[in-house]
Design brief:
Strand content: 5-15%
Structural class: alpha+beta
Order of helices and strands: EHEEHHH
Distance between the termini: 52 Å
Helix content: 25-40%
Shape: globular
Radius of gyration: 16 Å
Length: 119
């Protein structure tokens, strides 16, 4: 009975719908687990027993993320002009577009890019 963490594999630009948060909460309550928000815009459910992991994925209606080294893991997005008084552009919209365009579970390369538009 080893405790296993499970990470939700893709949360576009760090935005998640309330219904999915409800599902995550229900899984954590059902299996007496803990929810952690990671610095890489992922949500981790920790404290699951190994035999409960597949049931938890089923409850979420998701499948586990592929574990490959080279891939685009997340597109990090600042609040932009929507929520920040220093914002100069709609970075949320841009980040979501980038996420849709470049996110893929596997890649032939590993890269890290950044873009900033603060004064």
């Amino acid at each position: 009975m080893v405790n296993e963490p499970m990470q939700l594999h893709h949360i576009p630009a760090g935005f998640i719908q309330p219904e999915m948060l409800d599902k995550i909460s229900q899984v954590a309550k059902t299996f007496h687990a803990t929810v952690k928000v990671t610095g890489a815009q992922r949500i981790m459910i920790t404290g699951l027993k190994a035999e409960d992991v597949d049931k938890a994925w089923d409850m979420l209606g998701m499948t586990p993320a592929p574990t490959t080294r080279n891939r685009v893991r997340s597109v990090k997005v600042c609040p932009g002009m929507t929520f920040c008084k220093r914002g100069k552009q709609d970075s949320i919209h841009l980040g979501m577009q980038l996420d849709k365009k470049i996110h893929r579970p596997r890649s032939t390369f590993q890269t890290k890019n950044g873009r900033c538009r603060l004064p």
